[in-house]
Amino acid sequence: MTTPRIYQNQAMAIGDTLQLNDDAFGHTVRVLRLASGDTITLFNGMEEDGEYFEYSATLTQVGKKQAQVSIDSRQAKQLESPLNIHLGQGISRGDRMDFTLQKSVELGVNAITPLFTERCGVKLSGERLAKKRDQWQKIVISACEQSGRCFVPKVEDPVSLENWLGQETEALKLNLHPRAEHSIMTLPMENQKVRLLVGPEGGLCDEELAQAKSKGFHDILLGPRVLRTETAALTAITALQCRFGDLA
């Protein structure tokens, strides 16, 4: 069996004995049924001297409600693309948003901001919005555990499209548009940073498209067919990684 990779949000060092947090305990002991003496791989998403690390650990003192691990060794791991992508994703209904977040992390996105747009069709606020953001962050963590990444992208607080468009950035600004004149593969890259805007189901309205253009976003085309929002985001990230990142 492949050694499970588990996210544990705390500093670690060889020789440390740590108590697994609730999420890590639930996945390791309740789901996978691991016991004392079994080994797991931990990562914490924390950068040390420009590197990210995996930690080999052994389960000890496994009980019904908690378990400890002993940190045996660590290894630097570099799976991050040279291309830094911040995805601004119009919030979509049902499982589409979850799917987009999961797969975009597997493809190497660095940050995600859920966006409220005219046609997003999702009305969340207050405590419900905070719970939804926490759920999205857990999906991101699970995608990192599965894909081997040690860096954990952050799901930023959901904001309005207008708010996000107005944020200062040095990144190349791209907006997916089915009637754009320029291909995603023809634009120049200056600093390996991209800010990618993807609308929800139904796309962005004309006013939102005009707002994006006024803020320096380039309309780009992925091909002759109109793609669903989750397909569009993942296709764009893949195309960018193939041209500027680390996908062959």
Features:
single chain; 248 residues; alpha/beta; Alpha/beta knot; 6 helices; 25% strand; elongated
In summary, what is this structure?
By secondary structure, the chain is of the alpha/beta class. The chain has helices spanning 22-31, 95-106, 126-147, 161-165, 206-214, 229-244; strands at 5-7, 17-19, 39-43, 53-60, 68-76, 84-90, 111-116, 154-155, 159-160, 172-176, 182-183, 193-198, 218-221. 30% of the residues lie in helices and 25% in strands.
Overview of the structural elements:
There is one protein chain. This protein is α/β, with parallel strands linked by helices and 248 residues long. The protein folds into two domains: 5-76, Beta Barrel (Ribosomal Protein L25, Chain P); 84-244, Alpha/beta knot (3-Layer(aba) Sandwich). The protein has six helices and 13 strands. The strands form two sheets. Strands 6, 7, 8, 9, 10, 11, 12 and 13 form an eight-stranded parallel beta sheet that branches. It has a five-stranded mixed beta sheet with strand order 1-3-4-5-2. Strand 7, helix 3 and strand 8 (154-155) form a beta-alpha-beta unit.
